[in-house]
Amino acid sequence: MVISKNQLDVVNKTIRKDIQSISAYPINNSSGFIKLDAMESPYSLPENLYKKINDKINLLSLNRYPSADKTKLTRIIKENFDIPNEASVLFGNGSDELIHLIIQSCCDPGDVVISPSPSFVYFGMAAKFNHAKFIGVPLTKDFQLNLQDMLDAIEKHKPKVIFLAMPNNPTGNIWDHKQVQSIIEKAPGLVIIDEAYQAFTNYTWMPMITKIPNILVLRTVSKIGLAGLRFGYLSGNKKWINQIDKVRPPYNINVLTELFLIEIINNKNILDQQTKQILLNKESLISELKKIENIIVYPSHGNFVLTRVDQEIGSLKIYEKLKANGILIKNLSGSHELLENCLRISIGTSEENNKLLHVLKTI
Predict the structure, then answer these.
(1) Fewest CB within 10 angstroms: 80, 114, 189, 333, which?
(2) Strand, helix or coil at 177?
(3) Are 330 and 307 in contact (CB under 8 A)?
């Protein structure tokens, strides 16, 4: 269909200028590739668990909207992810939706959202989409918090919301606890601790959500093997959760997602075993990467590892070489000045990691 000039003019006059100026979030066509670019689990669920779920699908009423009663799902999530009994929980269609809901409920147009930078890019995107102003406070050269700059930004901009991702994506590190505490104490509004990768570390702020009045913990099941379900949860004081819940779209958790979650989380030991294997694979991969000349490997508390390659080689050359050999990773060069010639590699199976290493050693 050909769009006439007049029709195009209507589009240009109608769509917000700031939306016209950006591109849609890029997602690679990964068919046929070894996927080491999106921090997914490389392991699928056992066949018998799929069969058990399949036997229950025909009991679902797909002609009806999902039930508003999430008591069973809430109990299972709280019990299996160590959420304090007295805390409230809000579910989202992925943690991305919850990030939107947080900003929608807290920010008037022009209000400020702050995060260290580089960090999860969707913090800034969601702020923009919801007419808030995003301020990224640069990390130090070794990806640590620049505490004074953070405190100065808080003092100057009075942010409604501060996002702190720990472990941080894409750097993989966890920031100093006392520095984070200083930020929380200085914050005039809400602080979101994004623990998307918490399953791969023992570090968590979850026990503190009933003790510190202005923090909520955000998590997702995407990194532990359930990315296809698109499910996240936000935990904390009910006064916060009740207000944010007001902007949640109705029926945002579909019946299939709920069924899968209940059955799979009731067998969470399977996911836990897969997580342990990913950690073993990561340890082995990091050890081998460090043996390769001209590659710097940064410490990681996630299911990925950040690397930096020599400028003479360049990250693009490595990215293209791997892609030509059927392997996808994330080229971060150009996304932030601190990430020049950086590549982020998700942890795959031992076989996938070995194929990656084989190609890298030929460059």
Answers:
(1) 80
(2) helix
(3) no
